[in-house]
Design goal:
With 74 residues, the chain is an alpha+beta fold. The chain is built from one helix and four strands; from the N terminus they run ββββα.
């Protein structure tokens, strides 16, 4: 993974605004969704975990579950 920088665009859709947190498995950033014109969160798996398929599978499963959530406060 390349160096993550504030202001960087991801997939020409998300612009990173600020780093929110880093946990044991990921870095989390506030971003602007340029197509939906709203703020969101973008999560990047830590580079040192990319060599283990179990970590990637867990990360993808979490993303799939979160994408199905629907609530006005989320």
């Amino acid at each position: 993974m390349s160096k993550i920088a504030i202001g960087q665009r991801i997939n020409n859709r998300y612009r990173l605004v600020s780093r929110v947190a880093q946990g044991g498995t990921a870095e989390i950033y506030e971003a602007q969704d340029l197509s939906q014109k709203r703020n969101c969160i973008v999560k990047f798996i830590l580079e040192n975990l990319l060599n283990n398929p179990a970590n990637i599978s867990r990360f993808e499963r979490e993303a799939s579950i979160v994408s199905k959530l629907s609530h006005p406060n989320i």
